[in-house]
Design brief:
With 521 residues, the protein is α+β, with helices and mostly antiparallel strands. It is built from 18 helices and 19 strands. It has three domains: 302 residues, no CATH class; 53 residues, no CATH class; 125 residues, no CATH class. Belongs to the bacterial reverse transcriptase family. It comes from Mucilaginibacter gossypii.
Amino acid sequence: MKPKRKSTWLRNRGYLHFTNQINVSEKRGEILGFVKNKEAVAKHAFFPLIHTNIKVRRYKFDKPGTARAHSHNGEQTYKLRPLHYATHIDAMIFGYYGERLQLKYLDELKKTEGLTDCVTAYIQIAHPVRKGKNKGTIDFAHEVFKEIESRSEQGCWALKYDIEKFFSNMNHRVLKNAWAKLLDNTTLPTDHYSVFKAATKFSFIYRDDLRLKSHDFNRRAGFDERYLAEIRKTNVSAFFYDPVDFRNTLKEGKLKVHKNNFRNKQGEMVGIPQGLPISATLANLYLLSFDKIMLDEVVVKRQGFYRRYSDDIIIVCSEEHKKAIMELVDNTLEDIELNVSPGKNEEYFFSNKDVRGVSKLTSQLWQNGRFFDNRPLTYLGFEFYGNKTLIKSANLSKFYRRMILAVKSRTKRAYASAYGNQTINTALFNRRLYRLYTNIDLDKKSITRNFKSLVPNQFGDYVYRVQKNEGEFRSNYFKYGERASEIMGTNSIVKQTRRHRTIFKQAVQKYAKIYSQRYKF
C-alpha cells in the first residue's frame, strides 16, 4: 500500500500580510473544512496580493564571440522579476486547488506515452537509482547532454528557446479552456471559476507602499515597527489588526489598490502572478497542448528529442528537420498567444572533430549567419561544451559574491561592537575574530536552523522566541558540485570549484584589515 501523499500546501507561512498568520497545527480541521467547501470557495472574497520585485542579475555577451559582462552598453544587465503573494487563507485555497489540478494533470500526462519524460519542471519524477529521491536539475541537464553525445557521430542541433514573459503573457481564454478541459467540462464549476478569477483578475498593493515615508530618496524606508509591535501585543502577526482595520485604511486613501496590469499588444488583460501556490501548476497546464504537439511532431515523427523546464525549451534534432521544427515551435506558440523571447532562441551544432589527433565532441554557436567555436550550451545551470561540462559561470560567481558579502558583514559587526572598548587586547581580539570563521565548515553536512514563534514575555508583550534545531544539511554548493560531477561522470566541475577556500580566506584577511583600520585596532 502506497503511503498517503502529504499535502505541501497545508503548512505555516512565515511572511506578514494583511490578515493574521494561521497556525496550521491548531486550525487544521477548520482550514480543511473551508477549502473543501465548494460553496464557500465560490463566494470567497480574495484579498489583494502583495507585490514586490526580485532583482535578477544577468550575464550578457556584448558581441558574438566575446566574454560575459554585467553591463551592456553602459547599462546594468539585471531584470526585475515581479512576485505576488497572497494572504494566508487565500494561499491555502490556491494551494488546495493547485494540488487537485496537479493530480489530474499528472494523470493526463500518463495517458500519452512519452509525455511524462518531456515535462520536467514543477513535478516530482522518481529517481531510478537513488531510492526515495526525485530527479533534479542535474539529472535533467545530464539527460540532454547524453542525448547530444549519442548523436555525435552524425552531428546534431540543439535548439534552445525561452518563452517571452511567460507568466505575465498567459491568455486568460486559453488558460480557462485548458482548465475546463482538464476537468472534462466545457465551463468551469463555480468554485474553480472563483479561483480562476482570483488568479487572473487579481488586485495587488505594492509592498513598498506599506513602508514609512522616507525623505532619503537614496534609501528605502522600513516598516512602522512601533505599529507592528502594538499589533503583536494582540497576538496578531500581520500589517493590520484585522480585516476591518485594513478596509478602513483603504477607505481613508492611505493605500492604493492596483488591478492586474499585464496587457498584450491589443491592450487586453493577460497573465497570472508568479508566487501563488497554484502558479506552477497553471503554467504546466497552459502548455499541455503545446507539449503534446511537440511530442508528436518532433519526437515521434521526426525522431527528435524534446524537453521543457517551465518556460525553457530545448530540442535536439538533425540538420534535415531543423528548419521545419523551428517553424513548428513559433507557429504552435502563436496558437496559444505566446512568443519566443526576442534574441533568446539559440542554435548550437554539436559534432565530432579532430583536435590534435583526438576526436572530440565540440560545440558551435550559430549566430548572425556564422559559427562561433567552443561556445557552450547553457542549460539548467550548466555549460556543456561537448567534451566537458561546467557549472554555469554566472551561478558560481553569484555564490562567491554572497560568500564575500557574508564575510564582510560579519567582520564589520565584530569590529563595530568592540569599538571604543579600551580593555580589549588587540591581538587577542584579532585571534577571536578569526575564530568566528573556524567553525564555518564549507563542506558541512549539518546545519542549525532557527525557528521563530510569538510568545508573551514577563511584561505581557509578544516577542519572537528563537529555537535552534540541529538538522541534516541537505546540500551546500560544493556538495552540489560533487554530486553533479558524479552524475555526469566528469571531474571538470570539481576542478572548477577548487578555489573556494582561497577566495574565502582572502575575503577574511581583506575585511579584517579594512575594519581594523576604520575602528583603529
